[in-house]
């Protein structure tokens, strides 16, 4: 049975993602992708203009996976402080788990894909974190007068800094700065001093 256009398009994206993970983005050519699937090169260009365009699709999926993980975290029965802290761990875990995709996103030469994922994640992250802080205000964990502004400040500031760090140093940099980020969270959101649960 012939595959639908959507099935074929998805097959190209998933195959490209697998090869980017195995070989690296720069080392993977369009020919490698079509060889893996067993189709002509023209079929690839029927769906995508370039390898970069496939990576943009993968970047969107990567961003959606992060947001999905954050949404699941929000429903857990842990403190607001722990939820905010674990959001940063989700970023680190996602980057390590999908390292080939992560590096591919950061190494696309036109830079659009890199900006796209940070914009997509940041845009969706701000209202989620703001909602968490408002909940923390309600239950007395924190006392933040303008959670939306502070969240935008934190997210945009962090993403701006990360944009200036070389791709292969980003994960280690974020791990190194995690204690400082947690201290900032405590102070900026005006959390009562507390220990993070295990």
Automatic annotation (TrEMBL):
Protein name, please? AcrR family transcriptional regulator
Q: What are the alphabetically sorted keywords of the record? A: DNA-binding
Q: Which PROSITE patterns match?
A: HTH_TETR_2
**Limits of the HTH tetR-type domain:** 6-66
Record has Lipoprotein as a keyword: no
Where does this protein bind DNA?
Answer: 29-48
* Lineage of producing organism: Bacteria, Bacillati, Bacillota, Clostridia, Lachnospirales
**What GO molecular function annotations does the UniProt record carry, in alphabetical order?**
DNA binding
């Amino acid at each position: 049975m012939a595959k639908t256009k959507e099935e074929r398009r998805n097959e190209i994206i998933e195959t490209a993602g697998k090869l980017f993970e195995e070989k690296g983005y720069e080392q993977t050519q369009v020919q490698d992708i079509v060889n893996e699937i067993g189709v002509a090169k023209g079929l690839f260009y029927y769906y995508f203009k370039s390898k970069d365009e496939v990576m943009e699709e993968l970047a969107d999926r990567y961003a959606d996976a992060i947001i999905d993980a954050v949404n699941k975290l929000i429903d857990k029965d842990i403190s607001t402080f722990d939820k905010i802290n674990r959001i940063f761990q989700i970023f680190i875990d996602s980057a390590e788990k999908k390292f080939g995709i992560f590096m591919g996103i950061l190494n696309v030469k036109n830079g659009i894909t890199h900006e796209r994922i940070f914009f997509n994640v940041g845009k969706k992250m701000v209202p989620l974190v703001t909602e968490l802080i408002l909940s923390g205000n309600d239950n007395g964990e924190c006392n933040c007068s303008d959670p939306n502004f502070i969240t935008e400040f934190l997210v945009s500031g962090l993403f701006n800094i990360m944009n200036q760090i070389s791709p292969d140093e980003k994960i280690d940099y974020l791990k190194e700065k995690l204690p400082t980020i947690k201290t900032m969270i405590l102070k900026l959101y005006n959390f009562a001093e507390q220990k993070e649960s295990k």
